[in-house]
Amino acid sequence: MLNIDPEQMTLKIAQESGFVDWYSNDVMAQHLPGFHAAFDPEIRHEMVKNGRKQALRHGFKDPVSQAHFVTLMWHIGPDFYHFPGFQEIAQATRQPGPERINDFYHVSEAHWNHAVQHTNERHWFSEAAP
Q: DSSP assignment, residue 119?
């Protein structure tokens, strides 16, 4: 589980550039080291930026929920929110962001596996995302 301590929350992560820098350089280095090492910083930043845009499109307004959403994109796939089990949660925008994030983590293993197996990696880049 992604833990964000109060000191990190004092950063300007509510703004796009602060979020992208923080997530790409700090969060990924600590929690997703394989992905962090696999991509050049420019590509990684673009992917995180587009991931945050998807989080915002789905009503995740707070940076902590956005960070979890982007983390789920890395773990499951960049279009995970299109798949059964996840889609219903992503569309439930009247429910608070942190509650929906929690619900994502409790989707069945079968739904997780289906999303992982059928993800389209092109969705990391804005021109491919619907």
A: -
Average pLDDT, the chain: 90
19 in any annotated domain: yes
Residue in the structure block whose two tokens are 């995302």: 129
Q: Is residue 129 part of a domain?
A: no
Say how many residues make up the chain. 130
How many independent structural domains does the chain possess?
1
Q: How confident is the model at residue 17 (pLDDT cuts 50, 70, 90)?
A: confident
Structural domain harbouring 58? 15-124
Residue 130 covered by a domain = no
What CA–CA distance (Å, rounded) separates 77 from 114?
Answer: 11
Report pTM: 0.87
Spatial separation of the C-alpha atoms in residues 78 and 91, rounded to whole Å? 16
CB contact set of 104 (below 8 Å; sequence gap of 6+) = 68, 69, 72, 86, 89
Confidence of residue 13 (pLDDT cuts 50, 70, 90): confident
In a domain, 1, yes or no: no
